[in-house]
Structures
1.
Amino acid sequence: MSGYSRRTILAGSAAGSLLVAAGRAQAQEERLFRHGVASGDPAADSLLIWTRVTGAGDGPVGGRWQVASDAACRSIVASGRFEATAERDHCVKIVATGLEPGTSYYYRFEVDGQRSPIGRTRTLPTGRTDRLDIALACCGMYMFGEFHGYHAIAEQADLDLVLFVGDYIYEYGANAFPGVHDIRAIEPAHDTVTLADYRARYAQWRRDPALQAAHARAPWICMWDDHEMANDDWMHGAQHHDPAINGDWEVRKAAAVRAYLEWMPIRDPAPGSPYGIERSFVLGDLATLVLPETRLQARDRQLTLKEDLEYQVMDARDPARPTVVVDKALLATLDRTALPDGYRLEPDIAGFRNKIADPDRRMVGDKQLAWIGRELQAHVAAKRPWFLLGSPTILSSYVYPDLTQLGKGPAALASFFAMTRYGLPMLNLDAWDGYPAERARLYDIVEQSGANMLVLSGDSHMAWVNEPHRDGRRLGLELSASTITGPSIGELMLPDGPVGEAFARDNQDVLWCDHRAVGYVSLTLRRNSVEGRFVRVTKPRSTEATTDIAMTARAVMQDGKPGGWTLG
């Protein structure tokens, strides 16, 4: 039995006005700032601004930065000098301080008289906060789709921040998925393994005008998932890392993390904690946002069907009463590759479920759970209505429906479809469903706090409206974004079948799933309600595309507690 991952499924299936102004400057290849500008990790009195000086060679390059209160950058409120060095790939990260809360600012950089595009950003509010507008996004596969979703984010009228929950880049090389043709050439053409590889991949992504526009529109709060390093990574390895081919995992991991910290608008982790990018944000008196790190600090290896699902010999000579063969002497005489008539192999589903439920399996670890607990205590003490949990993967529980009953999928996925008959987590073994004991400990902390939890997640390449449950009790709400570019997993598995409907039918936690969705979630948070609009990109592989709203989900506070989702 083969294992399954998102890559297996793919292989088996066939800007805003500021950016426009910047684009009218010089031709892209002539600019020193051809990767645009960005901001991130806002606080009430500070935020980080980013750019990269291109064409600088190996030497250091000096320049100036400015933060202003007006879009023309005439009223400067903070400024200083910077030095871009080859040590950090000539990326520049500045933390501008002394700013006012809940205020829009504009920023730019200058080198040798040449100015960068102007970016818009915003500090976090303090005190009374009645509304926040957030764009929730993930999974930008440059090679498989245009960045129309980023263009839509750049043009969104009301936007306080972008929450990006992972898979900003993908480590795969060119045409890595048989049957799925790349529509844009990838740099480098091979898998990213070295520091130079990862840097080149970020550089290509950041040359895209739509992505630059989205960064210039609002501050980003980012968390990595797996593809910033390698597919289905964990502390000591990854599904898409073969030491015999890719070398030492620790070397590759360190290179990937270094490039991420250089290129992303994120504050660097504390010295001595290279992977400690978990952090929290206070959003006035409206919400607390907490982002745990789920990959490199505590995660145990994911279970897979290939490596962890065992098979047992069944005695089916009496078809009405098949039994498991436990006689060791008999088993020793049987050739599993050529069993005699009346015997067959069957997967040990119960044993596999027991492995999944192992209480020792970790995803975030005890240290981060304790930290989340402290954040929850402070949140409840401050009486903020909403506790936002940013999660790179879906928190709610779901199993795959029996796809064999929904239509005929690609021939190469026949064995995957057959396994869906057993009601297992399949591709979501890499998500919280693969670590249910850890999730139960998180649920304990949330329930004990009494906080109103809203989970904002991604990764699955499908769009979801969920309500996490435990023993029949609703523990919170969840919105999960699909891929910003496509392809969607559901579309590739069974484009014409009612897959999304079957997920909702077969799982208590799932209210709605769009298995074909490509796009992001536009979220409006108010004191007494939350509304998520699933912005869907049409024709993501076309150079021209439009967007529409695939679904709107709304929940309203009732006596200080959110009711369930209303869909429409």
2.
Amino acid sequence: MNNLLNLPSTFFVGCNYWASHAGTAMWSNWQPEQVDLDLKRLSEAGIEVIRVFPLWPDFQPIENMYSSEGEHFGYRFGEERLPTTEAGKAGMSVEMMARFQAFTEIAATYNIKLIVGLITGWMSGRLFVPPALRGKAILTDPDAIRWQVRFVQYFVKQMKHNDAIIAWDLGNECNVMGKVASQQEAYVWTASIANAIKAKDTTRPLISGMHSLFPTGNWTMQDQGELTDILTTHPYPFWTKYMDFDPLTSIRPTIHATMESLLYAQIGEKPCFAEEMGTMGPMVCSEEVAGAFARTSMLTQWSHGLPGLLWWCANDQTKLNHAPYDWVACEGELGLMTEEGRVKPALQEMGRLKKVIQELPFGKLPARKVEAVCILNSSQDHWATAIGAFLLGKQSGFDLEFRFEDQPLPDANFYMLPCVTGVYGVAKQRWEQLLDKVREGATLYLSSNDGYMLNFAELTGLTVQNRSRRASDAIVFLQTEAGEIPLTLPSAFKLDFRNDRAEVLAAEADGNPVLTKASFGKGTVYFCALPVELAMSQQAGVSYKPEQFPYWKMYEFISEEARSARVVQVKDPQIGLTEHIVDAHSQIAVLINYSPEGREVPLILQEGWQVEASLYGNGPTVREGGTLVNVAANDAVILTLRKIHAS
């Protein structure tokens, strides 16, 4: 059973749905026989939940009436006065509500559950608004908000007894329906709609339905987390900043949905899942590549504790001539199925993996081990910093969780504060709390993007002697057991240091320290003078060519102690590894290959542990010198590990 939504699968698989014959016109061009066929095909392919959209102007078709000199004279359904019924007072179409009821009955026939996106005013590149509200500021105009509140209250009241519906959704990317001038305006709109929904139904979770949220700005993860029950990401590599740099079968795109959803959940402090995801069709990749992408991404989301995913979308829409399909070419071929019902490889893989996960002997996968707390601070590019830190951690073999600087500081042995940026630095009270943790024995990693840090010399063992703008990228030489590794790191400024007491792990050609280690109280401080996380996230090609761009080697240094507690490790930056504790004597390890070639890797097992069984993928082989496992291209191996004696 899924512990987030009332679904039977421990990891749910679904999609967003518009009817194959009509797209956004499915309610005005209602063909229940075709809808029945669509849902039958989806159910047979493994889909158990769909997100559906009562198109706003179809369900609330109100129009304005005006008298002389443009004086507003009320609202009507065409020439008809609004009835004095409950539906009429809400401006709602009884006919459309009956069609939606019929839709739920079809869904129930195939045991498909529904997430209902209530305010569907934005869809696939087009704004859909009732005639009476056209031209208004949809998110801030009082009249527009009044009718939206009436819409959701009526709809929810009428449909809340329907067992096919498992969650309400504010609507489809409602933050795109119009502009807001401030965070306060975004908050007021969200609160108005959320409270109206919850006033009529407290039994179902409320899903945010937004995309492109940030820790700061008008639309924030924190506000959506406060006002809704479940956060959502819409993590398309094609549309998301920094994500379309690499091929879809490499680590950055395939880990994207997981990385962004964890960021939302941990900063917004509510559960999160990828509510829309996909490859954006045949001009981006082949169907076979889309299948490999879906497989790798789904395995990653599952292994990192996310509850499920929804693909965009159910069906291709190549035969439609109305907007937005006649003006947005990329909307035509995004389906898991063709209009004729051919199931594409992405859906085949999703349905297959859902069965694999459901049949695993341990039920819900235990939470993964997390070694580090990564704190994002106010002045930086939060998304770029988070991407860089997460990818580097994954390539070097450890896991992290995110916090924003205004959240309480959790207890941990390893803290990360990457890419400190600008003169504000970190808020002093939070900074002092962090330093206290290090004095008591924690490890702290800092990297600088021309940022200010109090107590810098005391903390790092370095004293800044001078500062200058760089004319070119920094060339850094990292000292490793295998020899010196040169790295090229983009950076705007150079800080010249006097080394008072730091151990230098990497330096420029002139000896200027770049990566250092120093003691601070009972703890340890690693300092990187360059924003290696931005070098990872803001450049194309670096994450899927780790041998050519071995930035992750710096993270190997800073995480050595943290990784030592792992039962199993691998030394391949293309293989991601999560560990999951079952009990004191057994664990589960999930190895995911983030490359389109099969990779054989040695397992480095902690003394006293052995591989007990392979639950998915190739089993390990024991050769002279160790245990090896072959992980298929864009696939995974799931192992159980058992402690055989005390180490």
3.
Amino acid sequence: MKFDQPATLNPIDRARVVGKPVDRIDGPLKVAGAAPYAYERHDVAPNPAYGWMIGSAIAKGTINSIDTTEAEAAPGVLAVLTHANAGALGKGNMNTARLLGGPDIQHYDQAVALVVAETFEQARDAAKLVRVDYTQGQGKFDLLVGVKTAQPPKSVQGSPADTSVGDFDGAFKSAAVKVDQTYTTPDQSHAMMEPHATTAAWAGDKLTVWTSNQMVTWAVKEMAKTLKIAPENVQVVSPYIGGGFGSKLFLRADALLAALGARAVGRPVKVALARPQIPNNTTHRPATIQRLRIGATKDGVIQAIGHDVWAGDLPGGDVESAGLQTRLLYAGKNRKTTHRLAELDLPEGNAMRAPGEAVGLLALEVAMDELAEACGVDPVELRIKNDIQYDPEAGPKRPFSSRKLIECLQQGAERFGWSKRNPKPGQVREGDFLIGMGVAAAFRNNMAMPSGARVAIDGKGRITVSTDMTDIGTGTYTIIAQTAAELLGVNVSDVTVKLGDSSFPASAGSGGQWGANSSTAGVYATCMTLRGMLAQKVGFNAEDALFEDGMIKAAGKAIPLRDAVGREGISVDDKIEFGDLTERYAQATFGAHFCEVAVDRFTGEVHVRRMGGAFAAGRILNPKTARSQVIGAMTMGVGAALMEELVVDKRFGYFVNHDMAEYHVPVHADIPEQDVLFLDELDDKSSPMKAKGVGELGICGAGAAVANAIYNATGVRLRDYPMTLDKVIGGLTKA
């Protein structure tokens, strides 16, 4: 099915199943410990050996030699693999650094060897016996230094690195009110519950990897290219994933090393990265330096808006796209955005939940708060005043497919009690605590990806949906079952969903907030094809046929599905493909975050007391699972605002705090009850589901709302994240 015209009334609009808060169908398996994760596939890979990765002790340089003699003689050791004996390897298109390093080293903790042994403990202990001799090179590890030679990248998420509309410099210079500030965000680490883990096995020249990966089709292609084998000889299986946030979009060292180890020892091999190996060996969110310049009239109408971004990555990597939302979120006739990439020898920077907008809004939405204060305008009113219903760079010829930012701000403010906020900072006290409220807009582009599925109905009328789509804890199993149940007129309990296997039709995968909308649209396309075939088979006009109560109904007749398909059953493959609607219409999701904090005036400790959010993201396919995604994203936003930071040792080029003891993330005690409101919205330009993504929207702007609340509470304006208590108390001391 080609989706190239706005959706009209269709069977999803009946909303008998889709849009309802259905419990996650995979929930019982997970709480019972029966959901098979990658490292636990004892059922399919018996008698496995275990691998332990050895990472580089330097960040830049060359391996002179690797002595594996002692390790190979250690109890239980089956093999020690290095670049010297692993065979010829390629590099995937989506990996900036090689997954097995040597002789050249590209970053600290880059995999340089794998020890395979009978037990995990034997492999781990023998790894200490491997002797690697290096020549250390001169690396570049400081973004502040790197900005001096930073260059514009070829593109930013497929868009130009720089954009310009009107006369920004002239309009900013002549503006009555100006904000010109620089904001910084640190490197951040993924901290998902399940580490990167893989079980690999060979059968002749065919490889199967049971791995934790968000994008199964990508993984097949990347593994084949890295091993220099045919893609049809690679099967990737990833039915359950304990969190990903973008770190598992791409093939990582665990998968490659498990495959190499299994080939070397002739039996299945398991490899899991230990928690301290994840920050330096996998991907992370890169640090940014962002300059925001906004010029406005005295009453807050934006005349000029400019956003300059600097970020770092390995040579050949990508820049953090922190200026993209500034191109679309607010009005202003004179505009400019720039992105500059500094080449650094730190571990690879790449996608982390809402890449670009998550950190871009940490800067933009604080700058908007500063503008509101400078103009004496309420921060909510300022954002409403600068709303725009079309792409401000392209003009009215490219309207938004749907945009309810104003409604999000208004309804969110009313639910949160924004009218009770004292606009003057530092005025509200409760004992030793200073109380403040903050607001920030939420924005995330809406993307769609081609997605396929197989839908089968057996002779008993039971439906099975198979697709290589993944569930990273977001409820994919459930919304796909809901979609099939809606379209074929059955109960959710009558649908079995099979995910995460490359032998199934290729789907969109989980990433970029495109997964739910795209994958359900793929199921929609397949079910619609199946509906047409069944209607024709029983002699009904497909357009008149009604699928409900397990039957096909038309012309006063009702035929059970099981009778329509017959004893042999029926199976159909199809997919959704998207046309140029994203070019003709700007497509995005919107929201408004509200936060109340209490700041201890003696210690500077920040306590988040209340959070509220109102969001417009098309049809909400399942409000229960969608809310779960949003509150998780809001929680990550609190982490970004108050505590998350990978500390760079600028002498040796590594992240010092690379475990959960020192890389701080919010815990339950840090997060209060979060109020989430989804606005009624159908976006007929997005997909036949009229839905959009929501999984990343909740983090976009959340941290800025916390920052703005801190300012309202204390009068201390912080522009360097995270806003740890030392920075807060330093500001309070000066105040």
